[in-house]
Fold these 2 entries.
Entry 1:
Amino acid sequence: MKISLTENQKQELENQHKLERDGKVRDRIKAVLLADEKWPQVQISQALRIDESTVHHHLKDYLSSQKLKSRSGGSESKLNAIQTKELIKHLEANTYPSTKEIIQYVDDTYSIEYSQQGMYCWLKTHKFSYKQPKGVPLKENAEQQATFIKKYEEQKSTLKDGEKIIFIDSVHPTEATKISFGWIRTGVEKMIATVARRDRVNITGAINLESMEVATKDYDTINGASTIDFLKRIEASEPNTSVFHIIADGGRAHKCHEVGVYLGWKDPTNRQYLEDHHELKLPSKCTVLTKKMIKRLKKIASKDPTLFCDLTILNKHKIKTQELLNSLRETERHKRIVLHILPPYSPKLNPIERLWKVMNEQVRNNIVFETFKEFKSKILDFFNNEWNLIKDKFRSRINDHFEKAKPAF
């Protein structure tokens, strides 16, 4: 195939080759220039390390239309404008695992056939890429999360001297080997020894985003008692702090009766008062109180009237436990600790969740531990010692730049 270029054409191609970033386009330009220099196609294919037939097509494209791009704007789509719009909308709402399923859908819906390469090109042209979707909790509430973020920002901006905001949570790393991504030589299948032991460490932790200081304590079990113990430790660690605003999820260990009594929450405190002082244990909040229990409550009211804000509640025919609790007196809250509960299913609103991920990256990923003692020692050493050396590196990652909830579709 004979190609003869003028000096101007050669110079233009040389200049284009210098500026072109696409390696395939540069190969086309080189093939044309070498053919002009009377190189045979077999020699060009050897020099460019491409197939001889590919060289032939490159030269043919250039002779017929001076084509140097792999696609000069692409061929006309088999789908019309309306069908294209419908398919784009369908693919935005439905995630297919491969082009085969999309090809089948197009054939079933429009009776139009595509090859896998053709569908791949169509998807790329219409700005689709093959990637993994991001999971979100099914029951997360975007409105509740937005309300929390607004209140948090208001609280942070009006924080008084001596007050601090602390995020707390619990984590339960197991001794089982945690396999994760890493840089491995191409073509090498790297093997990592694994153990399947389920022994775990139960850790409650707290982080102050202003100082990036972390406090942790391991417990046999994470429950109300461990939460109270941890809150006492936080309080004792900083005697000069007037108020700790503790932010935590709504797990049972944070919202249980014992914690409510310790913090002075109204309902748990009044429940405990009735049990301790009048030997009356109230049933669950939705239960209708028995006539016998209402009679006892009336006697209690006659002896301890300050317990009630509204005595008329006892004249009702049916009283639910929650109604009774609502009618009881306000209680004195804990003077130094205020617990703020996050909206349900909102791990993205607790920055300490990202600290747990960093711990896994630094201590657990692709590491096998010989004994549980070694495993536990490494975990605790990370929080007690190593974190203080690296904490400032993670300010851009562990912070309160909350990601707003996005709807699943």
Entry 2:
Amino acid sequence: MKTPKNKHIDLTAAQKLIKNRKRPIDPQVLSAEILAGNTIALSRAITLIESTTSAHQETAQEILAACLPHTKNALRVGITGVPGVGKSTFIEALGMLAIAQGKKVAVLAVDPSSSISQGSILGDKTRMERLTADANAFIRPSPAGDALGGVARKTREAISLCEAAGFDLIFIETVGVGQSETAVHQMTDFFLLLKLAGAGDELQGIKRGIIEMADAIVINKADGTNTTAAKHAKTEFSRALHLYRPKASAWQPKIMLCSALKETGIDEIWQTLLEFEAHTKANGFFESNRQDQNKYWLQATVVNTLKDRFYKDETVKQQLPQLLDTINTGKVSAFQAAQELLKNFKKATSGNSIDERHLKTKDQT
């Protein structure tokens, strides 16, 4: 191994890290470490979940299967808002308060991915210094990729692993750049919308879809000269909420003010989370909502798996560029080309269905 050029790098530690990375992954050992609360093992398992390598995916599924019976009913909180609204500062303030109340907090922060380079900065840990340093917290930034709503496709599996590792409060921070937030709403119990006052954000935020999903609207940065504007925004949102039908949870969404930087209003938000959990568990919505989410993610996983199989198929890879040329020259429509691709994909995979493979194996035995 070459000696690192940076004098601040510990050579022994670097060699140990490389050796550990080359070591084969034992799903049973990694699962046991996750159940014991080892956050390094938890990070490795989430990396496997996010990997597109088939071998990693198989290992990840073994780990998930071992951890699933040990998942706890952690409170899952989705937090969204436009860039600059202060999501990271807010999560750190609320997370530190929860830890002071005896909770273990996990943060799954989804960073935007560049449509050009496909890269992500993944800088959430640097924006949550206190939470990062706390032994009762775990922060995992992940690239959004092309997932709708800024929620990485594998985030739901990561939630299960965090619960198995003993975290009882899980924040899912979304990109919040105007994409559909249905995905995060379908994997959380409580959906919190962070807003800004005095930035033209009040009326822009009163949109039926996002408001209907929110269990609480929090106007951040309500301090200093922005206090009056924040109070005005609170009034506007309170009026808007009266236009919407009651939520299925029978919960009345709350509009609150806070300053994450000054840590004012955070205690009221924490109490609101506890009230919501008690309310929805008492009326049965908490469990029924989890069951509806299971159905949603089963269907979403089937769609995503079929999509992956389709674009990885060799027949599709060969014919797709040719059909794109025929579309561009006006010889066929996009619909006709898609039907042709699907027909050829079905032919190529007709003998490889799960049921047929199972029957062949059964006949051989």
